[in-house]
Amino acid sequence: MKTLLVLCLCISASLADVLEYDDYDLDPKDKGTTAIDPRGHRPSSRGRDAYVPSGGAPPPVSGRGRYRGRPTAAPVTPVEEESVEQPDAGGCTHASKQMGVICPTGCELKDTVRKQERNIKPTVADLKRSVDELSRNTNSVSRYIDGLSDELRERQKVTDGNGQLVGEYTNDIESQHAFIKEAVNTNFPSNIRILQGILQSIRTKILRVNTALVAQRDKCTTQCTVSCPIPVVSGKECEDIFRKGGTESQMYYIRPDSFFKPYRVYCDQTTLDGGWTTIQNRMDGSVDFGRRWDEYRRGFGNIAFDTGKKYCNTPGEYWLGNDRISQLTKMGPTEILFDMEDWTGAKTQARYQQFTVQGETSNYILSIDGYSGTAGDTLLTGATELFGENRTMTIHNGMMFSTYDRDNDKWVPGDPMKQCSKEDGGGWWYHRCHSANPNGRYYWGGSYTKYMAKHGTDDGMVWMNWKGSWYSLKSMCMKIRPFFQQ
Ligand SMILES: *[C@@H]1O[C@H](CO)[C@@H](O)[C@H](O)[C@H]1NC(C)=O
């Protein structure tokens, strides 16, 4: 017992030693003076770290675009979608090489199994209680029978000389005694045996679940794949696919140009006439967005899942990758749509007619223009609840991309204690710091406080001009489409 305790202490101590990227030391003495005003911006203390607004953003790619307007009649004969049969050995570990790696952990399966285990446990406990109680009852009935037997013996002694009447009475008691004894000796035990059988089978099931859990945990250490048939129709991007007849929202292969290898992406072919290439999606917090520069460059997360429809019709949480986003948006004028939802199911949108992301050499500078929508234009005008310089600090247009390991924001550049990405949860085009934080931390339920936030800042999945700093949205999806005249 003692060694166990020591072991536990050691484990928790070593866990505490593992610092996360944003667990940098804040000198507690500093807390009073460097208190952060937790509303997107970081006000400047005059003289010490004056804020100099930047010189404006490069103009986004504009013009008429590579596509004519869509033909008025919707495509009548969609291309036959042949689904490729994928070898399937069950679960998460097997898919054809062609499908590549999609789901990073397979932990959803683990969670499901865990949930099931949770449901079974109370049932087993109940059953066990019933069995125990039945055993207790059986014992007391047995004692009663014993008593009855004794009494019978007594009575037999007494009635020995007492003739017929008592004899009949005794016979009666005897038959009752036999009946009860039979019940106790055969019925009760057989009931108990049945219950014990059930208990045993549930125990076996739990054992199997445990084994499966352990196996799953092992599998979770390596990446695993999801198998979904990918439609044969493919194209430069989702608009191209739509025009070729791929009008179902699901996962497709796209190949924007011949220098890129084809890659998987989720196409939203229903929202606002479809043709949208999803570059970011959040909806359940299953993927961690506090990631390094390299990961944001390459992209991360799960493109899509098959939820029983035999194709990948449900987008996962992912970031497409800055290189791909930049490449797609530089091919021609591109519009972007932010689709978001709060925890009551209310939905809103922000749409920008022009959206361009420069390449890595310029740290993926963001250029954006042409707002329309209901969510509020945070990216161009900043947080409307702030004023003057404080609002300017929350404009995202013209900003470079920052991650916790690559600080390109406008909050005292070079000061490792003043990095937006470290405090606000994700990689983003931080200024000083944000009015929109789509890659921030995922908070269940929406409202959160600065005491829940790791650094007291509004690090949630925030869109200030819709829900303010202290409300983290339920879902957020960023999708792009080549601009064309409607
Ligand atoms: C900016 O924010 C700080 C702190 O919240 C406040 O003291 C200051 O008055 C604000 N400036 C403007 C122009 O609103």
Automatic annotation (TrEMBL):
Keyword set, alphabetical order: Blood coagulation, Coiled coil, Disulfide bond, Glycoprotein, Hemostasis, Secreted, Signal
Annotated Fibrinogen C-terminal domain residues: 229-484
Pfam families the record matches: Fib_alpha, Fibrinogen_C
InterPro entries, A to Z: FIB_ANG-like, Fibrinogen-like_C, Fibrinogen_a/b/g_C_1, Fibrinogen_a/b/g_C_dom, Fibrinogen_a/b/g_coil_dom, Fibrinogen_CS
PROSITE patterns: FIBRINOGEN_C_1 (PS00514), FIBRINOGEN_C_2 (PS51406)
GO biological process, any: platelet aggregation
GO cellular component terms, semicolon-separated: fibrinogen complex
Annotated spans, Disordered: 24-90
A GO molecular function held by the record: protein-macromolecule adaptor activity
First and last residue of the signal peptide: 1-16
Taxonomic superkingdom: Eukaryota
Compartment(s) where it occurs, according to its Swiss-Prot or TrEMBL record: Secreted
Quaternary state and interactors: Heterohexamer; disulfide linked. Contains 2 sets of 3 non-identical chains (alpha, beta and gamma). The 2 heterotrimers are in head to head conformation with the N-termini in a small central domain.
Protein name as it appears in the record: Fibrinogen beta chain
The species this protein was found in: Clupea harengus (Atlantic herring)
